## 1
Amino acid sequence: MTFCALHQRGLGGRRQQQAAGMLNTLLRPTMDHAVQQPISGAASALYPNHLSTLMQRTEEALRRVGKRHLLIPSGVTKYQFLDDRPYPFQVNPHFKAWLPLTEHADCWLVITPGQKPHLIYLLADDFWHLPPQAPEGYWVAHWQVSLIRTPDEARALLPPTADCSIVGDADAALADYLPDNAPALLDYLHYHRAYKTAYELSLLRAASTRAVRGHRAAEASFRSGGSELDIHRAYLAATGHNDLDLPYTNIVCLNEHCATLHYQYQSPVKPETSRSMLIDAGASVAGYAADITRTFSNEDALFSALIRGVDEAQRALVDRVREGVDYRDLHVECHHRLADVLIDFGILKGTAEAAVTEGISAAFFPHGLGHLLGLQVHDVAGFAASDQGGRIERPEGHPFLRLTRTLSAGMVMTIEPGIYFIESLLAPLRSRLPEERINWSLIEHLKPFGGIRIEDDVVCTGSMPENLTRDAFAAA
Ligand SMILES: [Mn+2]
């Protein structure tokens, strides 16, 4: 690595001595600073190949837009209206694709094919906040690093804008370096981001391992009668996350709340009886997400059996994650499998085929089978037809599906079927369906349990799928 900016910007000798001291720290293992979790040796050994894959993709993407450099601002800290309170910082996902840095505002990456990638790294003097540490870890030796003391100092280190494509949030850059987010460049990068490198897979495995620790603690808290807030806190303690480190807000539901798909509260009130818990909660490692849902029942034999029915359907669907499978077909297959479960339990009568084509299964399973997963919990390009753009539309009648691509090796996705008892979706069936097609008394019995969702994170490989979530549970 080189600290060229120290010379170009004429920073003083004291600053250069500090930089030399930083070099001495580079041999320490890299920490995911937000969470103080060591990143495994496997990930660090795999990093050079990850970097060269990103460099190859970027070279092609730049060729398509006729530019020499890709600039990626990490983002800026945003403030609340009339206040000096910042919103939680969310790093530009294009930035954290290159480096395990998730908390660093006002930094830049300059990617130029054929050259060592260049990180412009803000090391501010700030006595109000703890500034980021000097760059250190397995990735640093692969970068040319320039330290700056104010965001404006980046300008002198950036190439002329005419030669650059800039990817980032509209207000996340210097005023004269506004992102152009060129569609042809993004189409290419986003399409290929679905295919994870070995480095990325190792971090996604680590994220699942971390989330599973939380899920086990959450189940224990539920079994001992904890409130939603108790369960949430048990989850945080076991993962070592705080709320802001999570890749998405935990969904922690007891009883009827399990019927609200994105239930957003964590009630501190212990319910009189804890009949059921649905917890949809993830974890992050180096900016990569896990996204896992489990459902439990404390008492009812029928609801417990229904959980097992959804679980069996879910595992059969995971087993179908193979190269060449169209995810739209898998989603429709999921409807058939869940309709079969509803028929097996006597909740619906008739054939699964009729339940799906007449839209009855959608009243119990109103969301999509899953989505791509990676740097973002709902990762980009779920509908991408090619690396030159185009969109694969959802099948008609399935408005919430988030992934329509054909699967191939390296893609990571969730598989998350569910069965819910949501009154606003059931109400139309009350007038539409004759009594002999649906068992309303069973549904009334099940409504106090809310619903069921089982969600795993799955890698499509050249052969058997890799289930990151079940592997992590098995190892725990
Ligand atoms: Mn999900």
Note: Residues 198-223 form the longest helix (26 residues).
## 2
Amino acid sequence: MSKHYSIIVGSMLGASEYVADALAKSLINMGNTVTIHNTPTLEDVKDEPNWIVCTSTHGAGELPDNIKPFAKALETADLSKVNAFIIGLGDTSYDTYCFGALMMENLLKSRGATLEASAHLIDVLEHPIPEDEAVMWFERMLETA
Ligand SMILES: Cc1cc2nc3c(=O)[nH]c(=O)nc-3n(C[C@H](O)[C@H](O)[C@H](O)COP(=O)(O)O)c2cc1C
């Protein structure tokens, strides 16, 4: 059954944007529709049931700047109608590996969202083309859903 997906992007340097674009392409090929939110706001996605949050980690384990206001707004949101996947990009040479994605996972769960799977963390040291890994994982998730 075709669905509409909202891809919510947290990115400083563009890698997570490439991942979002690749996921969108794959979903559209499967007959779905997609909106990519590179400057996400709660207002834009609060009535959308299918979220894919795709975020890197920057600073000392922080979310990228573009997604911080969105994360803040989620702290008081009712997400009980939201089904979400989370994909995290990070680098295992940091002690704070993928803390941004893990923070989003905790936040979504605490606000009542249904997580379709545990956050999928992608180490960019191991996967220099993270979009390939992300699409492979996501297609596997949809097959088994
Ligand atoms: C200044 C800086 C800080 C970073 N801090 C972290 C971190 O705390 N944890 C982590 O897992 N990765 C960290 N990374 C790695 C990025 O998350 C990784 O390079 C990612 O692919 C960047 O994706 P983006 O281009 O979408 O922002 C950091 C990278 C930079 C340049």
Note: Residues 11-16, 56-61, 64, 89-91, 94, 96-99, 124 surround flavin mononucleotide (CB under 6 Å).
## 3
Amino acid sequence: MLKENKKRVAAKLATLAGCDPSEIVITRNTTESLDTIIAGFKWQAGDEAIMAVQDYGAMLDMFREVAARHGVVNKILSVPVNPGSDEEIVALYKNAITPKTKLLLVSHVINISGQVMPIRKICDMAHEHGVKVLVDGAHAFAQLVYTIPDLHCDFYGASLHKWLSSPLGAGILYISKENQDAAWPLIGPSKSEEVGIAKFNHTGTHPVATDLTIEDSIEHYTLIGPARKQARLKFLQQYWTQQIMDMPGVIYNTPKQDTRICAIANVGIKGMPPATLAKTLFEKYKIYTVGIDTGNVVGCRITPNVFTTTKELDQLVAAIKELATAAV
Ligand SMILES: Cc1ncc(COP(=O)(O)O)c(C=O)c1O
């Protein structure tokens, strides 16, 4: 039953992702999906990989491990907080490519800043140079409206317990048909599973409830409506950010262009470490945020969901205005 349930639910996820059921498997989370590809990629010593300092730590850790295991050379670039154009970002990645580059990791949404990346343009450029692209969709899946094949990526990983609101412990791994032999699976498949995506589907025994609840999460998301959800999240983000982003005491760490935003945004206060800001927002104003101090993103990540009200955001705006005024 475990296998049949998994297959049925994976087919529903394929519909949601806009891909063929033969291109997607259920995993435990984004980390498992992406690290399976990073670890299992058919590396040769001296191969190069590209990633950004703003990518998620678990993936950067796995790349450090393949550097030690296989002699892979990691090129780590930094994505600007407020890029002028898609072309500026594409050029950044292009300039890091050499004849030895084999794999490029890019986040669909940079989780520390909420920046939405021009994935399709990056994939098309990388393919012109024979480089495969692995996309971290942890914060994009069921938040933004898109299909995975439309992104032109080779591999895509996401967690379902983030924006799809499934219970903890569910994710997806997409591998396009032509790339299903480009990586080894994490767990050895049985003989009957050796071909295609099935070889990435062997998990051993695990709680069936995790798979079954995904169906309810899909139904819930479909009832809300993907376009309506994305519009609501964008509205909430702009509702509060537009009131504070240009204040003198504020450091605004999220792009301003409409095409690069989602629910998440990051704001800092001049002269205040992010950990102190997070503590102050929580203890003085009862607002929970996450303090971030990574690369060029120094501030607190603010993440409303569809149920967050503008009244609640008014409290956030009042708090930021008070702190920003005191900072200058
Ligand atoms: C961009 C990004 N990638 C990957 C992950 C890891 O997700 P999980 O712990 O569900 O594997 C996160 C978690 O916050 C994330 O923000």
Note: The chain has two domains: 2-223, 226-327.
## 4
Amino acid sequence: MEQRQLEGLVIRNYGGFYYVQDDLGTVHTCKVRGKLKEKLLSGDRVVFTALESEQGILERILPRANQLSRPRVANVSRVLIVMAVAQPRPDLMLLDRLLFLAQYNRILPCIVLNKCDLEPHPSTLSILDYYPRIYEVFKTSARQSVGIDAVTAAISGEIAVLAGPSGVGKSRLLQKLTGQQTIRTGSVSAKIGRGKHTTRHVELYPLPQGGWVVDTPGFSILDMPAIRREELTGYFPDFSVFSEECRFGDCIHHREKECGVKAAVDQNQILASRYKNYLSMLEEVMTKEGIY
Ligand SMILES: Nc1nc2c(ncn2[C@@H]2O[C@H](COP(=O)(O)OP(=O)(O)OP(=O)(O)O)[C@@H](O)[C@H]2O)c(=O)[nH]1
Ligand SMILES: [Mg+2]
Ligand SMILES: [Zn+2]
């Protein structure tokens, strides 16, 4: 059989092989030459040489739109930030940090409030009241198959990652979104500890209407990347209209007087927890600035 060079998407990597789906939907089991292996991520678009019986040799990685370190995946275009309406109650700090990180990586985030079959915790109500003015918010019950179609529609054709704390129902949602009842859960329950590495393989699961979803084990702590302190406010779209009232053009809404953002917090126009979480992230960024 004649050798052909094809393009495809790395959908999983397991046992030293990379599974690459070509644009017609055929999955090729590929080996990787030398140094390429260290760089390659699930989600990468690649060029490979197709050999007989759906085998192949991976030749090169095409340019990436982005890459996440947790989970290790490339070319993500949506992050679904999953919180439970209760059990566990929503973690607003983690929510605000995940929203920041998605935007920092130029990925469109949306919020999924799962377990809507349960009585909501009060902080769920403030999510429902406040966040829809800035981000898309979905209510689902993976248990009762409620609200799944709206989420599917929002991510069809995309590469979407499920993120959020442990126990909120990410894996159960993945099963509903993909329509697969028996997903290889393998070591999905392996928790990623702070600073620890795991060798868990990342898999892209196909969506019925096109596109892919990636599951992530739950986590609760997220460090800030090294950015400049003035940059942070730009990742809080809800602050921007009020920051026009700040006396100083470079106001970071911290210790400054005559700050439009702080005034808006006092008048309940900005959610107090959101400003508090902004300050926590800001202080972390400032500490890092001092170190580097
Ligand atoms: N009541 C209710 N329970 C749910 C729902 N979705 C998931 N659960 C339950 O919540 C528990 C955790 O679900 P998982 O899907 O394993 O949660 P996860 O987010 O993947 O957790 P980690 O893998 O540890 O990060 C399980 O007992 C699920 O059955 C839901 O919509 N409603
Ligand atoms: Mg899970
Ligand atoms: Zn200000």
Note: The chain has three domains: 4-61, 67-214, 229-291.
